[in-house]
Specification:
Elements (H helix, E strand, L loop, with lengths): L10 H11 L9 H13 L3 E4 L5 E5 L11 E6 L21 E4 L2 E4 L6 H15 L8 E6 L7 H5 L9 E4 L7 E3 L1 E2 L1 E10 L2 E14 L17 H16 L2 E7 L10 E7 L2 H21 L8 E15 L1 H13 L3 E5 L7 E5 L1 E6 L3 E6 L2 E2 L2 H18 L2 E8 L2 E2 L1 H5 L1 H12 L9 E3 L16 H4 L14 H5 L8 E3 L9 H9 L1
Parallel strand pairs: 3-6, 3-7, 8-22
Antiparallel strand pairs: 1-2, 2-6, 4-5, 5-23, 9-21, 10-18, 10-19, 10-20, 11-13, 11-14, 12-13, 15-16, 16-19, 17-18
Helix pairs in contact: 1-3, 5-6, 5-7
The structure holds zinc ion.
Zinc ion binds next to helix 3.
Length: 501
């Protein structure tokens, strides 16, 4: 192969990244990369397992002298998110990624790079390929279809794995070890609506300008949720004068904090709509002031149109919708105050969509504690009973937080540091206590500016232990990755370890 990434270390890691990038591997299209991994293992005489959904496990015995160390499982996913600029010609089902190296930064030509999680694949291949690295027995697990719902990991026959220690290589920030993960479900409430013919004046409320964000990583930021703000306005209008709701639509993804929401109400005449508009403007002013610090771009336009003829929800349907939105849990539900206040339970009302005959409300509740996740599901079922709605639960992801870690971040930090290098027990290495959200660091140590931009700089001759911090943080970006120049300072993590030898 004619490599584009040259002059960077570890050279072999980048070469493997290029080889992986050359194979189309969008979610659901993993046979090619899966077969590549099987061939890789066979060429090196390594034990390999491939299942029917193309998960692959490659096993490598411990290096000389490390035979008594416990087996470690390394894991990453082989699929990637496929997205491109409209102006770029690229077929993700047949074309490899067109890599671009410029000014020490690796990107792709108008497409996603696939560093999430291609760099994990490259890291594992590097370790499997290099017999000079000291390591315990390894089980390298390559899973499929992660981006669409952890399908490969869910399907994998776990009896194939003997390791009791796992390092997941799909993380974000350097110098941060993520030690728990949130479970979640998608809850969809579906309520039938009855409509009746109305004439008069419509009042259209249109919310925009909110920051939004990912409900897994931004729920604690107290940003406005357009669906909830709209429900608040309409609830007040209902107290004032029973409007009929024609439509209520906000959001397209359960896990996105809603940024935009539009509702149309109908009143008997212009005067009634105008009176409602004044009430709405009062609430909008309140919300604007409340969000001034956390979400300053919030706006809501209010428009009246006369002489309309519409099919509006009947009172019962409209009331059920607004009650559901006012009562459904949203935002941070519980934090872990024993450690750093990270979120343990959260919920997000991401989507409200009305059609002619039904309304759908989609929530994304999350928790890192299994019992709390189950309790939360019960609570949402109770709400459904009250609302006479039919909830459906899908995409269940199991929670995973270790009790000892929930009790003390400090002791864990010390434990990690000492396990990496005994004399580093006071290292500022900080674990991320994943919130009720996707694995997301809450705090991190502060390495040097260059080190921060060097997630892949672990020299390949270094001992196995030095791979740990780099490996756990190197899947950092789908759009670009900074490359360390040959001979430049190594990453912060390996730097600290070097100091401690
Ligand atoms: Zn990933």
């Amino acid at each position: 192969m004619d490599y584009k990434i040259t002059g960077y270390e570890p050279a072999q890691l980048f070469h493997f990244f290029e080889e992986v990038s050359a194979i189309p591997r969008g979610s659901g299209n993993e046979k090619g990369i899966s077969d590549f991994l099987v061939a890789f293992a066979k060429e090196r005489g390594l034990d390999v397992y491939q299942d029917e959904v193309y998960n692959v496990i490659i096993r490598k015995p411990a290096s000389a002298g490390a035979e008594n160390a416990p087996t470690v499982m390394l894991q990453g996913h082989i699929d990637m998110v496929c997205d491109k600029l409209g102006s770029v010609e690229h077929d993700f089902t047949t074309d490899g990624i067109d890599l671009v190296v410029k000014d020490g930064v690796l990107t792709a030509n108008g497409t996603t790079l696939g560093a999430d999680n291609g760099i994990a694949v490259a890291l594992m291949l590097t370790v499997l390929d290099d017999d000079s690295i000291v390591h315990p027995a390894l089980e390298c697990v390559f899973t499929t279809d992660e981006e669409t719902g952890l399908v490969g990991a869910e399907t994998l026959d776990k009896s194939q794995i003997s390791a009791r220690t796992m390092i997941n290589l799909d993380s974000e920030e350097e110098g941060v070890a993520t030690v728990s993960c949130a479970g979640g479900v998608v809850v969809t409430y579906t309520c039938p609506i009855a409509r009746e013919h109305k004439t008069g004046s419509t009042l259209t409320l249109d919310i925009s300008g909110l920051l939004g964000g990912h409900s897994g990583s931004d729920i604690h930021l107290e940003r406005g949720n357009g669906n909830l703000i709209m429900a608040r306005i309409i609830d007040r209008l209902m107290v004032a004068g029973v409007p009929a709701i024609v439509s209520f639509n906000g959001g397209t993804k359960d896990n996105a904090i809603n940024r935009e929401c539009k509702a149309v109400l109908v009143y008997a005449d212009h005067a009634a709509a105008e009176a409602a508009a004044q009430i709405a403007k009062g609430i909008i002013a309140d919300v604007t002031a409340e969000l001034e610090v956390f979400d300053p771009g919030f706006t809501c336009t209010v428009e009246i149109a006369d002489n309309v003829d519409v099919e509006a929800m009947d009172d019962k349907s409209a009331l059920a919708l607004i009650r559901a939105l006012r009562l459904a849990p949203n935002g941070v539900i519980r934090r872990n105050v024993a450690t750093d206040g990270s979120v343990e339970v959260s919920s997000n009302i991401g989507v409200v969509a009305t059609s002619d005959d039904e309304v759908k409300i989609m929530l994304s509740p999350r928790s890192s504690i299994t019992s709390l996740q189950n309790e939360f599901k019960d609570r949402l079922q109770t709400l459904a009973d009250v609302l006479a709605s039919t909830p459906s639960l899908s995409s269940s992801i199991p929670a995973g937080a270790m009790p000892s870690i929930r009790r003390s971040a400090t002791s864990l930090s010390r434990a990690i540091a000492s396990s990496l290098a005994p004399s580093c027990a006071s290292s500022p290495f900080t674990p991320a206590l994943s919130a009720a959200c996707l694995p997301r660091p809450c705090t991190a140590w502060t390495p040097s500016p260059w080190a921060r931009r060097s997630p892949m700089s672990t020299p390949r001759t270094r001992a196995w232990s030095s791979l740990l911090p780099s490996a756990s943080t190197s899947c950092s970006s789908t759009s670009s990755s900074a490359l360390p120049r040959k001979g430049r300072a190594s990453s912060s993590s390996s730097h600290v370890l070097a100091d401690c030898k």
